[in-house]
Amino acid sequence: MLVYLEKSGCDFTALVREHQGMVFSIAWHFLHDRSLAEEVAQEVFLGLHRNLGRIESEAHAASWIRKVAVQRSIDEGRRRLRRPQVALEDIPEPASSGRTSDPLLGATLRRLVASLPETPRMVMVLRYQEDWEPSEIAEMLAMPVATVKSHLQRSLALLREKLARRGMGAKER
Amino acid sequence: MDWLEEELRRALAREEPPEGFERRVRQAVARRGFPARRWLAAAAVVIMAVGAGTGYREYRGRVAKEQVKLAIRMAAVSANHIQNHVRGVIR
User: Fold this and answer.
1) Which residues are CB-contacts of B25 (< 8 A; sequence separation ≥ 6)?
2) Is B7 inside any structural domain?
């Protein structure tokens, strides 16, 4: 299927192929639920298809996709708070997710990040998944850069403390 | 960058969605179709329904009109017949 964006001439399928990893991963690391992450990613691309006429360039499409992926993940997280949910500890980690030097540490880190409150969680995902600068995160989440930096520092301190309690701190490494 | 940040980068690295994701997106897009087409189809159904209703009402109106005309003609024939009879009696 070839669907071209009316103004930009971009290929919809190519955009899905190029950005699916980013969209899925933002939702997956934020929600810590792969099937929900896939649903969110699908909705983002369906939204893109509905808004084809407004997209002016590939850069515009990428920025639109990033923004909607972040917002839809936050919305889904809020919706999930209102529904009965499975504890993060009970969700199995997929076998393919072990890229850390220690697979157990990687799984623990993903769980700990997913257990952070909404805003610091998204800040951590954008900083360490997308490698964004605090200023870019601040712009995306409409908050001061100082607040982003403060979320990062506090989240890192909290993760260090929780890892140390589990015997996974720096000294053990 | 310290060890924790490095581990976070590895743990939160991008992942591709499950296999077949792109195909499922294409199917979802095809299922939803184009909104303009859906609106046009819905509008066509409404227009046909309204048109059919209007046509039926017009048909019923024509039938009633014919019935009234027939009744008037029959009444006129009867009145004419009575009038002729009365004239005959007077003469």
Assistant:
1) A16, A20, A42, A45, A46
2) no
